From TrEMBL:
Comp. bias (Pro residues): 10-22
Superkingdom of source: Eukaryota
Origin species: Takifugu flavidus (sansaifugu)
Residue span of region Disordered: 1-32, 51-71
Protein name (record): Sec1 family domain-containing protein 2
Amino acid sequence: MLTMSCLSTHPPPRYQPLPLPSGPEKGSLCRQGALGDSDFTAVLRQLLPLMKPRRGEDDTASGSRSREEECGPDELILLLVYLYSLADEAQPSDQDAEEEELEKLERELIGQLTLVITQEQHLSPLLQKLTGERVKTTADS
């Protein structure tokens, strides 16, 4: 196996611990590494830049990211499901104060995800089931 031979010939990398954040980025999931260490609203806010419709094949030259590096609607939904499953375990201490901000952010995420899905040229079978769009088969021709 190729992967086993690569693993056996190279020693495992040594990782340096990230410094603990302070200031405005304190709630960042990327910096803290655990959802329990940050508030859920800050984690969801990091998803907003990912919630953009994918470009077509001919648009990749003008953009900074290739189509393969962009998150599609399937990946975004899976990420949201995963984050919400973790959020059930991480209960914020001041839940009432953040509830209104969280609801506003969730409405914004729903709008962005809706835009991503409606602008997708070809929906996966999973998204077709979720959105109620009929899956076209060869028998339909």
